């Protein structure tokens, strides 16, 4: 087995020894490595002094355990001061700290192998030192437990169903761990948060942060944002409906055209207005396509008009903190840009008519002005909107037949 020895005046040394080797023979090996005479060596395991006549296995020393070596002639702390509690913490953390501090070689090796613990040794927080020692001890115990389980499985009955299940789980977990380690080495950015794409725009002269989303079929603006931009007066409520997605939001209507400024150029844009307080402005596929936009992730810019103007995507520090809650924002945007239906149009039941993306399934069907005009006329006759809508649906939009249906003619 291999043990690691942290010396008082040399580098950390790894020894390959027999579990039944005596402490005296280990000291003899260390004398060759460190030039410290055997008689001046004092070996400590878990804070307890190891006597020459004792065997490593009898002391409980296991593979990859740590042994400390101090010089009996120069050690400023007694063996009792450097002992460890069963949970791995130091019996006398102040003495342990001073012992490491006063040995520059040992401290240097500790910086190479465990910089976090080394920084704590140089600090003034003894509780932090104790916490780290407990964590290291717990980690070593967990590794030893896993090794013991793997060893037990090797000698398990091959016809034991439960043992085979454990072996299968261990093999699967090993594959997962190897995959995770490979990802850390070759694809570390996969563990970082992906910031959504935002650009600076002006809507009707009001600057705002626009969420660029090629997965949303329509461009969306919230009611509060439309009011701030002075556009609510242009809201056409004939295009009301319900947007279904992860959740649902009410479509308050449509603003048919308003100027947006991207870079230094103005473009005409139309919006659906939603009652969605957590989503301000979503620049969807309809306007991306209309204005021939290119999402250039290599240069991290949005190119508009086939490249006549380019604006950079905002860095995380430039995006308002309320927009960085991707989970909530995506849910809101999804419910806002999901399948939108109205009470007068059942075409949304046909999934082949809607666009789909990895984030949102957007299929927006809106009633036209002609249909709404029929609804308004029938409502004037004294019927409720829901009854009128139902009658028009039954009569395939025929206004006269719908009136007869309402008056009980059918």
From TrEMBL:
GO CC list: cytoplasm
Keyword Calcium among UniProt keywords: no
Entries under SMART domains matching the protein: UBA, UBQ
Region feature (Disordered): 328-356
Alphabetical keyword list: Aspartyl protease, Cytoplasm, Hydrolase, Protease, Protein transport, Transport
Keyword Cell division: no
Domain UBA residues, every copy: 366-409
Locations listed in the record: Cytoplasm
Highest taxon in the source lineage: Eukaryota
Pfam families for this protein: Asp_protease, Ddi2_HDD, UBA, ubiquitin
Annotated GO MF terms: aspartic-type endopeptidase activity; polyubiquitin modification-dependent protein binding
Domain Ubiquitin-like: 1-76
Entry's Gene Ontology BP terms: protein transport; proteolysis
Compositionally biased intervals (Low complexity): 333-343
Family: Belongs to the DDI1 family.
Database matches in PANTHER family: ASPARTYL PROTEASE DDI-RELATED, AT13091P
The protein, known as: DNA damage-inducible protein 1
């Amino acid at each position: 087995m291999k043990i690691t020895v942290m010396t008082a005046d040399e580098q950390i040394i790894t020894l390959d020894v027999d579990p039944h080797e005596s402490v005296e023979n280990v000291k003899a090996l260390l004398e060759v490595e460190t030039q410290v005479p055997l008689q001046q060596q004092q070996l400590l395991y878990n804070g307890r002094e190891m006597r020459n006549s004792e065997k490593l296995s009898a002391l409980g020393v296991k593979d990859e355990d740590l042994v400390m070596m101090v010089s009996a002639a120069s050690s400023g702390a007694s063996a009792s001061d450097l002992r460890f509690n069963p949970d791995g913490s130091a019996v006398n953390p102040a003495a342990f700290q001073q012992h490491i501090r006063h040995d520059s070689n040992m401290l240097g090796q500790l910086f190479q192998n465990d910089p976090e613990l080394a920084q704590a040794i140089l600090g003034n927080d003894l509780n932090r030192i104790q916490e780290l020692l407990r964590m290291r001890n717990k980690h070593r115990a967990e590794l030893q437990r896993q090794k013991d389980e793997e060893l037990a499985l090797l000698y398990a009955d091959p016809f034991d169903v439960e043992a085979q299940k454990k072996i299968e789980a261990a093999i699967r977990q090993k594959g997962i761990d190897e995959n995770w380690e490979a990802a850390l080495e070759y694809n570390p950015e996969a563990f970082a948060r992906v910031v959504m794409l935002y650009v600076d725009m002006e809507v009707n002269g009001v600057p705002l942060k626009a969420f660029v989303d090629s997965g949303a079929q329509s461009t969306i603006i919230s009611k509060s944002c439309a009011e701030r931009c002075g556009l609510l007066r242009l809201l056409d409520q004939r295009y009301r409906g319900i947007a279904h997605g992860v959740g649902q939001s009410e479509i308050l209507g449509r603003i048919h055209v308003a100027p947006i400024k991207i870079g230094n150029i103005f473009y005409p844009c139309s919006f659906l207005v939603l009652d969605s307080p957590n989503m301000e402005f979503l620049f969807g596929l309809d306007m991306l396509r209309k204005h021939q936009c290119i999402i250039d992730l290599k240069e991290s810019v949005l190119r508009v008009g086939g490249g006549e103007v380019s604006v950079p995507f905002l860095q995380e520090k430039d995006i308002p903190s309320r927009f960085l809650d991707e989970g909530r924002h995506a849910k809101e945007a999804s419910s806002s840009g999901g399948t939108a239906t109205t009470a007068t149009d059942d075409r949304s039941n046909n999934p082949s008519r809607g666009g789909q993306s990895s984030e949102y399934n957007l299929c927006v069907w809106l009633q036209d002005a002609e249909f709404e005009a029929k609804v308004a006329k029938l409502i004037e006759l004294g019927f409720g909107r829901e009854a009128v809508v139902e009658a028009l649906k039954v009569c395939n939009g025929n206004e006269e037949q719908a009136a007869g249906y309402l008056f009980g003619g059918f």
